[in-house]
Amino acid sequence: MPLVIPDAIQRALRSLDEKREQLVPYKIAGAITEIRQSLTAQSRDEQSGAWAELSAFQFAAGRGEPWGTYFGPLSSGTRSDGLEFYFPDVREADSEIVGYWKARVSEVSHPVLRARYADVVWDLSEAAGKIRRDPSFARIAIDSYIDTVDAGLFKAPTEAALYLTRAMDLGLSLNDKARVERVRDCMLGFYDKHGIASHPGTWGFLFDELLQNKKIPLSEDQRKQIVDTLENILQICSTLESGDFDPFSAQSAAERLASYYHGRGKTEDRNRVIQTYGQAFERISQDASSLLAMSWLAPVIDAYRNIGLAEDLKRALLLYSGKGESANQEMKTISVPVEITQGELEAYLEAMVDGSLEECLIRMARRFTPNVEEERSLMQTIAKEHPLLGRIGVEKIADGQVVGGAGSIIDDEEGRLVFQIAERIGSYIGLLGLALDRARDRHQMAVDNVMGVLYKSPLFTENRRTLIEDGFRAYFNGDFVKVIHVLIPQIEECLRTLLKLSGEPVNKPKGQGKGLLQQKNLNEILAEPTIGTKLGMDIRTYLLTLLADARGLNLRNRVSHGLMTAAECSRPFADRVFHVFLVLASFRAEPTPSE
After folding, report:
1. Alpha helices per DSSP H over 368-464
2. CB neighbourhood size of 181 (10 A)
3. What residues pair up with 519 in beta bridges, in sequence order?
């Protein structure tokens, strides 16, 4: 049976076609949806007819996944039974609906309507009804897109740019040289009529679609026109006094120009355009907040370094460093109170120090080592219950600069795990200190009996005993500066001993041959698969986060490079160093077969 289009929908579409006003497909879909929702007692044929009209404008341009088409669903999801669903779904279309779209192409005259009907026929015929595609509909779509732009029947210049880009893709796919040239000419004249310097979406295609595509014929004059347009945009958007000042748009123009000039060996021009947009960011960073200025300057610094602009790099680094010095003052502390009753705290501490000193210390080693799977589970809960928060990336600022970053929980789970583990380590600081104090009182914990527990592990060697004793004596005397600077390097040596006991070399070739060797450092040791197996995921991740990852606490590297401040060389970090030794003490020599 033929589709039945409700009268109200027919009247609305007829009115849009006759008025020849500016139209936007998604607004047409919205109007049809409102009419459809107001209708009552629709027959099955009317429901199908309404869906045929609605879906033609609801399919999202440029979102072809998962169908391998240009048009795709507005949204998708997974049902409780595990099956994916799409809205709208091309599988709801069939040969009858595709035939209806074909008929509509010849019925309407408004170029926006005509382009949409023709393009969905060309693009979705095979996916919808396994119908062989007819190139004539692609040609109609191209012509209609050009007519839309020429007649100014679009709402926003960015929409027109997308129409022209789609028309060019269709022309190239058909190898229709005449239409490719028509679209090219329309593109070349578009910026002067409708382009906005501060909106790259209205001119970026000049470079991306024309200058970069060897399949599109361009004369030297046309190439020069595109380059001159981009140069003009760069100057306008990088000039602070300009009404169109926008360093981000300047960057978009500069990067395209730099690519063009680099390909032609024009190094001076390449450097010039990078300097122009970079200095625009430098100017606005002068009076910006520290955090905002640092975020603006970071990619500029990368750009200067990548092309060897030493003086510009130095200037930008000095500006960045100056802003970084006050960055911490601008950040706000966000805290969440957690209430623990005195009775609960007492019960916890008593359970922690129960038994012998050795049992107590090994228990602390395990209890205060973050559990990786629990932290992963927490991150997934955050991503599920607070999706916006889960999609935001994070950065770490230390020493007046951004030293590490991670993407969203969804896209960069491993990076976010380091941040999460670091946060967990921080949340345990106070409780760890109380537990150590209680153990000190209950078991008369001192240097000698702690050393007795440590040296039951083969990771502690006799040639290090004096240094380790000295470090723990400093701990019990409250000399935390010495604790941190003496004991942290010994952690690295203990792990090197574990590597040796595991049958792996502790050294590596140095430089380009010549028989020179050097010891593996902490990061290299922790990266060894054998060490990962011996330590387990929890301990390996803990040590990496605490000692050797810039996204975490990074104590070993900060100590080695003289970055630790006097305020940081305090008891909380000393307690954590103490705890790492307890973790290492939990390793015992593997029993012999006779044992």
Report:
1. 372-385, 387-391, 413-443, 447-454
2. 13
3. 507
Mean pLDDT for 463-489 is: 95
Distances (CA, A) of 432 to 348, 572, 578: 11, 9, 10
- Res 590: pLDDT: 56
Predicted pLDDT at 593? 47
State residue 42's pLDDT score. Answer: 78
352 sits in the region (left: phi over 0; alpha: psi -120 to 50; else beta) called alpha
Residues near 177 by beta carbon (within 8 Å), at least 6 away in sequence: 217
Give the mean pLDDT of 528-532: 92
Nearest CA to 116 among 90, 146, 92, 144?
144
CA 495-500-502 angle, to 5 degrees, is 95
Three-state SS annotation for 60-90:
EECCCCCCCCCEECCEEEECCCCCEEEECCH
Task: Specify the higher pLDDT residue, 506 or 271.
Answer: 271
Determine the 3-state secondary structure of 400 from DSSP.
coil
The residues, ordered by sequence, that sit 6+ positions from 295 with a Cβ below 8 Å of its Cβ are: none
| Residue 469 C-alpha from the chain's centroid | 46
Whole-angstrom Cα distance, residue 36 to residue 408? 39
Beta carbons of 475 and 546 less than 8 angstroms apart: no
pLDDT for the residue 592:
44
Pick the most confident of 30-39, 397-406, 471-480: 471-480
DSSP class of residue 2 equals -
Residue 591 has pLDDT above 70, yes or no: no
Closest CA to 540 of 444, 414, 362, 412: 414
